[in-house]
């Protein structure tokens, strides 16, 4: 048998194997966006390590470089949230593979569990008034909250249009905002633990669809702009970043209040209807 024939047979076998793959295991456009989410999460960890942690441990920490690397890391987490926003929209419009849900959960764990938790750990190491072990414990709670939330999401069915518990992208951005606000250490840790609790709570959050999805996307772009202004040390950039982080934290605190008030009002209305029916 000639070399040409051998290669031809080998190529034919590969093509037959590819044709034998079920359509459900082939990546779709939505899956590609989900993988982009995972890449952004990993690169956020990379920038946090190489630009913030390693220079600090080597005693060659440059404030401007640390700011730039931290901004890059947070920007990548924001980009991951954009990928997470659009992969669902694309999956509803176009074909989605059977792996889509699993890929989404694994990518979310990297970008909105590992990356922000690692950011907290590094903050606990490099910050002057922080305590590394306490920060690491808070980071563990964030990771566990995301893991439990994603597992619960996979095995429960809720009414359409809502999430149960704070969505992990929103929780990740809130945790990072708390760190960037540069508040005293203890209140920051308590707030981070509160966010972790909200992610596994039964508080209902609306899914970002339609107008809400557009608002979410625009807010993400504004947040990236604030991060860029801060990292480039543009006049007023620090104030812009602080304002953006404060608004993120205020939204995280008020949405559960509105949701709880709505549930209480619904419960009271149902009680009144039952009492009237009697």
UniProtKB/TrEMBL annotation:
<keyword id="KW-0808">Transferase</keyword>
<feature type="transmembrane region" description="Helical">
    <location>
        <begin position="109"/>
        <end position="127"/>
    </location>
</feature>
<dbReference type="Pfam" id="PF01066">
    <property type="entry name" value="CDP-OH_P_transf"/>
</dbReference>
<keyword id="KW-0444">Lipid biosynthesis</keyword>
<dbReference type="InterPro" id="IPR050324">
    <property type="entry name" value="CDP-alcohol_PTase-I"/>
</dbReference>
<keyword id="KW-0443">Lipid metabolism</keyword>
<dbReference type="InterPro" id="IPR004533">
    <property type="entry name" value="CDP-diaglyc--ser_O-PTrfase"/>
</dbReference>
<keyword id="KW-1208">Phospholipid metabolism</keyword>
<protein>
    <recommendedName>
        <fullName>CDP-diacylglycerol--serine O-phosphatidyltransferase</fullName>
        <ecNumber>2.7.8.8</ecNumber>
    </recommendedName>
</protein>
<keyword id="KW-0594">Phospholipid biosynthesis</keyword>
<dbReference type="GO" id="GO:0008654">
    <property type="term" value="P:phospholipid biosynthetic process"/>
</dbReference>
<feature type="transmembrane region" description="Helical">
    <location>
        <begin position="134"/>
        <end position="151"/>
    </location>
</feature>
<feature type="transmembrane region" description="Helical">
    <location>
        <begin position="35"/>
        <end position="58"/>
    </location>
</feature>
<feature type="transmembrane region" description="Helical">
    <location>
        <begin position="238"/>
        <end position="259"/>
    </location>
</feature>
<keyword id="KW-0812">Transmembrane</keyword>
<keyword id="KW-0472">Membrane</keyword>
<keyword id="KW-1133">Transmembrane helix</keyword>
<dbReference type="GO" id="GO:0012505">
    <property type="term" value="C:endomembrane system"/>
</dbReference>
<feature type="transmembrane region" description="Helical">
    <location>
        <begin position="171"/>
        <end position="200"/>
    </location>
</feature>
<dbReference type="InterPro" id="IPR000462">
    <property type="entry name" value="CDP-OH_P_trans"/>
</dbReference>
<dbReference type="InterPro" id="IPR043130">
    <property type="entry name" value="CDP-OH_PTrfase_TM_dom"/>
</dbReference>
<feature type="transmembrane region" description="Helical">
    <location>
        <begin position="212"/>
        <end position="232"/>
    </location>
</feature>
<dbReference type="GO" id="GO:0003882">
    <property type="term" value="F:CDP-diacylglycerol-serine O-phosphatidyltransferase activity"/>
</dbReference>
<dbReference type="InterPro" id="IPR048254">
    <property type="entry name" value="CDP_ALCOHOL_P_TRANSF_CS"/>
</dbReference>
<comment type="similarity">
    <text>Belongs to the CDP-alcohol phosphatidyltransferase class-I family.</text>
</comment>
<dbReference type="GO" id="GO:0016020">
    <property type="term" value="C:membrane"/>
</dbReference>
